[in-house]
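We close this part of the discussion by returning to an individual protein. The amino acid sequence and the backbone structure tokens for this protein are reproduced below:
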Amino acid sequence: MISDLPLHLLLLVFAAAIVVVVLASIKATQLADVIADRTQMGEALTGGLILGGATSLAGIVVSVNAALSGDASFAFSNAVGGIAAQTLFLAVADLLHKRANLEHAAAEPANLFQAVMLIVLLSLPIGAMAGPDIAYLGIHPVSVLMFLAYLAGTRLASNISEEPMWRPVKTPETREDEPEDDKEAGRSARGPATKFAVLVVLMGCGGWVISQVGGTFITRFALSSSLVGSLITAVVTSLPELVTTLVAVRRGALQLAVGGIIGGNTFDTLFLVASDIAYRDGSIFHAVELHDLYWLATGLMMTAVLLGGLILRQRAGPARIGIESVLIMGIYATALVVELTA
């Protein structure tokens, strides 16, 4: 059992799981870019749906495991803490794209819509927590609503990607979402998709190990479930998003990078749906503590700032990054200080 391992072996297992998840995510990003070209889905949609969902798998395994064990706070904080961390990673990636503000260069209507969709999905749990404590078969009605809203939003995002009703103004810094290699278009995506599926399984196994180690940290060192969920497992399971974003920016797949973060965060809201189903002592929204709402509010604020940056499309700001990236880093740093000193 992982929980019975001595500390040095526990940390070794933890590090090994992180390495597996990160390396798998690097290869998955490369394959996602190929799949986008071969299927002509577009980088923004591929990043939001395929890559975003795959790199989020480790995190959902952590939240579901925590909910099954009855730790609602761990499950909830892991989900919302990951959303905040991944939004921060997009600001970090902005530092690496020197030509212009990343949100300016990666202008894409589908990303704007997914950001709006994410704000809506993050607002629903707040309504559930503030509303009456109800559950049917142990599931809160808001969980069903979130799932249906995700499906509807995903379909609309696909429609926007295929037939946009408006397009962003082109500038010399705008990076067009076009296949990097014309030879890829029309080729079969079966091979890359099969390899991608294998990598997804590896990331899921890594997530299970991370969840077991995180639970051990809580019990062995008497740490707060909210602290471990929002700042340890959430950040660790979000590392694939950091890696895939940096790799995508380096490859010039800017829509894939931005879409991967926003789409991954949108998919991460389903962690709460899955956790509510796995948690068998009633609605998970009324089992968590008020403190867990803190990181949900942080993620909501960071997403709103990101959306504003995508609309503003500032070409260059302080240190050649957009003002939204500066604000996102400031919001996260403030939240981190408050969390650690509270």
User: Anything to note?
Assistant: The two ends are 33 Å apart (CA to CA).
